[in-house]
Amino acid sequence: MKIILGSLVVKNNRKLIDKIMLQWAKNILGTIHLTLKVSGQEKLEVEKNTAVIVMCNHSSLYDIPVAIQALNTSFRFVAKKEMFNIPVLGTAIKYAEFISIDRKNHEQAIKDLEKAKEKMLDGITLWMAPEGTRSKDGKLAKFKKGGFHIALDTNATIIPIVIKDIHKVQAGDQMKIFLGQTIDVEICKPIDSKNYSHDTRIQLIEDVRNSMLSVLNRKLKVKKLKTD
User: Fold this and answer.
1) Which among 73, 92, 174, 203 would be 20 to 30 A from 20, CA to CA?
2) Nearest C-alpha neighbor of 50 from the set 144, 151, 186, 162
3) DSSP code of residue 99
4) What is the span of the domain harbouring residue 186?
5) Which neighbouring-strand residues pair with 183?
6) Which pLDDT score, from 0 to 100, does residue 211 have?
7) For residue 124, what are the contacts with CB-CB under 8 A and spacing of at least 6?
8) DSSP symbol at 189
9) Does some domain include residue 189?
10) DSSP letter string over 119-170?
């Protein structure tokens, strides 16, 4: 709600919306006394005029506030086009520069992709969960293709992000929350989609997935971040 109201008040003020989103994330994580340990932040430093998509494993409702705090950048999401038609919410996410891509309408999809690319080249980092839904046990589920189509169509650099054991705070299908947990976050080596094509999309998917799996299967050297 804070993000929604803030977006309505500060139309197209990206820096202020970033601050509102970051404070919201800190408040959420602070209420559950979560400690973040983040590694690989230097890998967010890509070349200028580069479209960036962050792809993150997804096993809890807390993934988004964790990612917002760990990345601390102009961080936005792809929203279903129907959400832009919802009173108040639709206006807010539009002002906050959230992105919608209408895959059912080819002409509109081309326009949406061009707009998405413009926003990313202008400094917006796009967040996606390639699994498409939350994993119940923290294991990496099968990846869906949609995000990779967008990456290829916008020549984006993909930065895989791994959040370890967040399902132990609250699993994807559970209501119970376990307080005081410590969560590891690793930012992986960027993968340039320009080295692939739609014909080699499967290889791109496998490379991003393998990057995440390699982190999930080893311990991390990390930097601690406070959430309160």
Assistant:
1) 174
2) 151
3) B
4) 34-77+103-225
5) 36
6) 97
7) 14, 74, 75, 76, 97, 99
8) P
9) yes
10) HHHTTPEEEE-TTSS--SSS---PPPSHHHHHHHHTTPEEEEEEEESGGGTS
Q: Does 183 reside within a domain?
A: yes
Count CA atoms within 13 Å of residue 88 on its CB side. Answer: 6
How much is the pTM? 0.84
Q: Are 38 and 187 in contact (CB under 8 A)?
A: yes
pLDDT digits (tens, 9 = 90+) for 159-188: 999 999 888 888 666 788 899 999 999 999
Count of the separate structural domains present in the chain: 1
Calpha distance 188→53 (Å, rounded): 12
Structure confidence by residue, pLDDT tens digits, 78-97: 877 777 888 877 888 888 88
Q: Examine residue 89 and state whether it is found in any structural domain, yes or no.
A: no
Within a domain: 213: yes
3-class DSSP string for 22-79: HHHHHHHHHHCCCEEEEECHHHHCCCCCCCEEEEECCCCCCHHHHHHHHHCCCEEEEC
